[in-house]
Amino acid sequence: MKQVLLVFVGGGFGSVLRFLIGKYLNSTTTGIPYGTFAANIIGSLLIGIILGFAAKNDSLTQSQTLLLATGFCGGFTTFSTFAYENHVFLKSGDFTSFALYTIASFVIGFLAVFLGMFLVK
């Protein structure tokens, strides 16, 4: 039960922070989801740092890892919103934004995880 509570609390904080970033960074004028992109990239960097730190000499407890990686990063990042925003790009015929957003999200997201793990070595 403690593990579920840790994931719940971390996920709640992550979700609220993602909502606020999206509210202030997503562009209603251009429709470009800067907030979702930022949350996913920052979350990728954070999970790299957290899991890299956890792997380094068992620096974090299982509870801390659940709270931060599974809970916070899981609530902060969002694949479902990313998928929906890509659906909107495709539906509107904006194939360039679709391609750029998708490729940049994957490439920069992976690089952010690797960077986070590298930073804690």
Short description:
By secondary structure, the protein is mostly helical.
Which range best describes the helical content: under 10%, 10-25%, 25-40%, 40-55%, 55-70% or over 70%?
Answer: over 70%
Please indicate the count of domains.
1
* Low-confidence runs: none
Give the SSE string: HHHHH
Number of H- or I-type helical stretches: 5
Task: Give the biggest sheet.
Answer: none
Residue fraction in strands = under 5%
Helix and strand content put the structural class at mainly alpha
What gross morphology would you assign? globular
| Number of E strands | 0
Mean pLDDT score: 95
Rg is 16 Å
- Terminal Cα separation, in Å? 33 Å
Describe this protein's structure:
The protein is mainly alpha-helical and 121 residues long. The chain has one domain (2-119). Helices cover 82% and strands 0% of the residues. The chain contains five helices and no strands. The longest helix has 25 residues, at 95-119. It starts with a helix and ends with a helix.
Topology:
Layout (H helix, E strand, L loop, with lengths): L1 H24 L8 H22 L6 H15 L2 H13 L3 H25 L2
InterPro entries: FluC (IPR003691)
Catalytic activity: fluoride(in) = fluoride(out)
Function: Fluoride-specific ion channel. Important for reducing fluoride concentration in the cell, thus reducing its toxicity.
